């Protein structure tokens, strides 16, 4: 096969590309330039997509004896990831830019270009498995090494994209083994630290970065009864579940710490309360995509004409709302509801509703909810609202 290896400049993508070469495929390495002004060097293990990363990727390809190219996706990255990140925070939501990058850049723009150039598949260094089931359909599953499993951030992949995705590290028992293999191959990236934090905020200070890109307006911090507790410099700088940085001056009457429960962008208010009020038992997601063929209950429902109030049959799931969070058991169903967004008010929208069997706290609108059955990824949706059925007045919503 003709394989495009997406080379981040890290150890995982280096070993993934090497394994594709070992398998006898025609491999071409490509590094994505996602910034027009990449830093020349990393700051420790922060960030990614720097000039240093590009040079590391080039060296690995030279050692493997495969062609290497840099593709400039910086404009699309700015529009689809950075601008989206800013817009979501302005709307009071907490986005996941890595999910958006996988959805819009690495497995949309990159794959689209690769297929148009005649490549059969794109190889990356992600830890996840793609399995062909008995019906011949491709399914996305968790990696063998659950500690490094990255199936959550790949939950945005569609059935068509899975046909062209290959993850050679899928069954590798541990990251340590990948580093050992890289060292045996003589790759200089064998001991290179993993990147973390948001790549376009390499210093890791999201609040300061947002302050440079969003016009912050001072507003009020209130409790759930409406009592004013203090002021904030800008509601967009906060997220549900946050404790630090509230600067309320005096403790709550019970002496317990307060947490952000809700962001209200229309009134520019931040609502705070006790940790207990962060607990939710129902999450509703929008803009769902399916990683492979949808489950039977969803397939049957989506064949029907949209109708307000119509719901699918329920199906068992585990839900995960953060990349490294524990999955939580629940039941899910789809339903048609009336859209309340200003631009589409009165129209119907499809929601994914998950009733949780186990407790979950600190769920923020804008986060991504990925659904599983066992190790299989069913799909994902963007969280529109989350609330406690026992306390419907305490809602966390930016829908």
Automatic annotation (TrEMBL):
Site (Interaction with tRNA): 126, 367
Gene3D superfamilies linked to this entry: Adenine nucleotide alpha hydrolases-like domains, HUPs, Translation factors
Family matches, as InterPro entries: MnmA-like (IPR004506), MnmA-like_C (IPR046885), MnmA-like_central (IPR046884), MnmA-like_central_sf (IPR023382), Rossmann-like_a/b/a_fold (IPR014729)
Active site: 101, 199
Keyword vocabulary terms for this entry: ATP-binding, Cytoplasm, Disulfide bond, Nucleotide-binding, RNA-binding, Transferase, tRNA processing, tRNA-binding
Domain of life: Bacteria
Localisation per UniProt entry: Cytoplasm
Pfam family name, one: tRNA_Me_trans
One GO cellular component, as annotated: cytoplasm
Region (Interaction with tRNA): 148-150
Sequence ranges assigned to domain tRNA-specific 2-thiouridylase MnmA-like central in this UniProt record: 209-274
Binding site for ATP: 6-13, 32, 125
GO molecular function: ATP binding; tRNA binding; tRNA-uridine 2-sulfurtransferase activity
Any Gene Ontology biological process: tRNA wobble position uridine thiolation
Coiled coil: none
Family that this chain belongs to: Belongs to the MnmA/TRMU family.
Designated name of the protein: tRNA-specific 2-thiouridylase MnmA
Organism of origin: Rothia aeria
Gene: mnmA
């Amino acid at each position: 096969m003709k394989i495009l290896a997406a080379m981040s400049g890290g150890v995982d993508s280096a070993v993934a590309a090497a394994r594709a070469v070992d398998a006898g495929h025609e491999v071409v390495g490509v590094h994505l330039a996602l910034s027009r002004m990449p830093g020349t060097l990393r700051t420790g293990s922060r960030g990614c997509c720097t000039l240093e990363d590009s040079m590391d990727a080039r060296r690995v390809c030279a050692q493997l004896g495969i062609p290497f190219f840099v593709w400039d996706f910086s404009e699309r990255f700015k529009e689809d990831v950075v601008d989206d990140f800013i817009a979501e925070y302005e709307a009071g939501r907490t986005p996941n830019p890595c999910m958006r990058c996988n959805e819009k850049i690495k497995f949309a723009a990159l794959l689209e270009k690769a297929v148009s150039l005649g490549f059969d598949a794109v190889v990356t260094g992600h830890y996840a498995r793609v399995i062909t089931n008995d019906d011949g359909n491709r399914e996305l599953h968790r990696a063998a090494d659950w500690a490094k499993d990255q199936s959550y951030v790949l939950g945005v992949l569609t059935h068509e994209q899975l046909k062209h995705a290959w993850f050679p590290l899928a069954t590798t028992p541990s990251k340590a083994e990948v580093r050992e293999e890289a060292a045996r191959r003589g790759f200089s990236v064998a001991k290179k630290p993993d990147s973390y934090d948001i790549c376009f905020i390499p210093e890791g200070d999201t609040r300061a970065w947002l302050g440079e890109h969003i016009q912050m307006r001072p507003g009020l911090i209130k409790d759930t009864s409406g009592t004013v507790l203090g002021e904030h410099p800008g509601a967009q700088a906060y997220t549900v579940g946050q404790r630090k940085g509230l600067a309320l001056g005096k403790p709550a009457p019970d002496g317990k710490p307060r947490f952000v429960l809700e962001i209200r962008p229309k009134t520019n208010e931040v609502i705070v309360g006790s940790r207990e009020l962060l607990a939710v038992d129902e999450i509703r997601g929008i803009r769902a995509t399916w990683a492979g063929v949808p489950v039977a209950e969803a397939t049957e429902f989506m064949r029907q004409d949209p109708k307000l109030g119509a719901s699918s049959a329920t199906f068992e799931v585990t839900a995960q709302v953060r990349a490294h969070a524990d999955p939580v058991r629940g039941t899910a169903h789809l339903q048609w509801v009336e859209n309340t967004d200003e631009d589409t008010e009165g129209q119907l929208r499809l929601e994914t509703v998950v009733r949780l069997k186990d407790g979950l706290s600190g769920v923020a609108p804008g986060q991504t909810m990925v659904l599983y059955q066992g190790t299989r990824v069913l799909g994902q949706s963007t969280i529109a609202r989350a609330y406690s059925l026992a306390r419907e007045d305490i809602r966390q919503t930016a829908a």
